Amino acid sequence: MRPIIKTIIITTGVSLFLIYSGYLYSHLPRGEKPLNTLADQGKMNWQKYNCGACHQVYGLGGYLGPDLTNTYSKKGADFITALLKGGTPVMPNFHLDDSTIHTLVSYLKDIDATGKSDPRTYTINSDGSIQQ
Amino acid sequence: MEVSSNNKISGIFIVAALVLLGVGMLFGVIGGVQYMIPGFLKDSFSFEKARPLHVSAILFWIILAASGALFTYLPKHTGKKIWSPLLQKIQLGLLLFTVLAIFISYFMGWFGGREYWEFPPILSLPITLAWILFIINFVKSLGGFSKQPVYVWMWMTGLLFFLFTYLESNLWLIPYFRSNIINDMTIQWKSYGSMVGAWNMLIYGSSIYLLDKIGGTNYGRSGMAFGMYFLGMYNLMFNWGHHIYTLPTYGWLKQISYFVSMTELFILGRIIYEWKKTLSVANRLGNHETYRFILAADSWIFLNLVLAILMSVPGINVYTHGTHITVAHAMGTTIGINSFLLLAFAHDIFSGDQYSYHYHPKGFNLGFWLANVSLLAFWLSLILSGILKAKWQMTPDAERIPFGEMMIKMKPLFVVFGVSGMVLMMGLLILVVNLVRNSKRV
């Protein structure tokens, strides 16, 4: 392969990648949202206690526990609070205080409002693509 | 031209990596037992500690071993020594210090990061610094980019894209990127998807170098090699969207990913077309332990590529997403492809003139076959678990059993998964111990 062709292919690819990345950073899928402080604290606590090791959001995360994307609308805040307070036979009791639990519930409420993670809600098109 | 002696530090990279592979397997087995016995060590060492310890140990096995291989093969390619052994030492020191700090933080339950990099984000700084030193040392040691074979391009691509995607994976620290979960997860999986491609570039680059060396070929300069490299590079940059097909993000992003992912069919076709040639080389080099790992990795590439292509079709991904089929793919590629290739490099490096390596056919064969057969059982049990979970996910609410009950029903498969994981650990440990014992310089 001639060096000039290699250079053209590499330069084109890297340029496209940088444009693609830059576009995505400046046009985030849900636009620029004001920070919901309580939910943001909940996100930090989600990461602090590494909830994602066992739980998924939109099917991404660990598989030992259930997907929690729409738990808020399906089970409600009281159910989530009770589980977080006592743990389960599989999940440890993290001995969380009330304010930490409150932030985690708020985070799950925030996630729930963004969409449905249920794969049954998708329509599969004949070309293999999907629609929700 | 070949440089007869690689420096001592390159070997230390590989030994440290091998130790991490052993440690990572041990934590992986503990995690596997927690699947078989729900609640096992729940109050002292629960899954949220075992999993990141396993993942981080394995990630650093890959990073350190790939770095050690590159530092060994680069001087052989250029005919010159590594530009700065001091930078190499600093890089190694920074990475080992970070691994230790990460392990301590996980044992203490100090998290703060996200999946795959769950440690407190401050520890990203020494990793970034180590990687920048790596790039500087590589560029200075290489001298120039003119008329270089494909593996040099692959090494450079891997080095630069790892730095870019690693920094990108930390963008969540800026509130603008994390204020909405959809924005946050889109950028997170953009970085992770490409990052895997980046370390694959480092590893596949070294494997092409090695194949040319042991096979006496010049494939690394062929048009086909460059064609495949460009295809791989475009996939690295644009196919990451298949991780988030079910995330309500931009549709065009998923279409681009779907289209680019399907170009992997060319790679699959080429593997099938070249199979006969691979086998003829295998007959010639059949007893060469390095080549046997490369051949095993070749078979795992085929199996996992078929799985990856299927999972890249959105209509199929709806079923496989959020199930253990994803884990099967991750484990199959990390162990069957990346780890086997890295073990091939370790055997090649330690069987060089500078090391006291002695080939023990019995021990090698035992480790090699235990690892491969158990990995197949492990991989299949995960795929079957995934099929059962996919079926459960698609069941109407009225007929669907609770999550906990579904997990109990899958227990026989988790037992196969856990036991085969233990055998896999034994097989790999035999190989690791043999390599570490033979890594003394003469």
Roughly how many Å apart are the termini of chain A? 44 Å
- At the fourth level of CATH, the homologous superfamily of the largest domain in chain B is Cytochrome c oxidase-like, subunit I domain
**What strand order characterises the main sheet of chain A?**
1-2
The CATH superfamily of the largest domain in chain A turns out to be Cytochrome c-like domain
Our estimate of the beta-strand percent of chain A is 5-15%
How many structural units, i.e. domains of chain B?
2
In CATH's first tier, which class of the largest domain in chain B applies?
Mainly Alpha
Which regions of chain A contain 5 or more consecutive residues with pLDDT less than 50?
Answer: none
What's the total number of strands of chain B? 0
- Using a beta-carbon cutoff below 8 angstroms, give the protein chain pair with the largest interface and the number of residues from each chain: A-B, 64 and 75 residues
Summed over residues and divided by their number, the pLDDT of chain B gives a mean of 93
Order of helices and strands of chain A: HHEEHHHEE
Proportion of strand residues of chain B: under 5%
Which structural category do the helix and sheet elements of chain B fall into?
mainly alpha
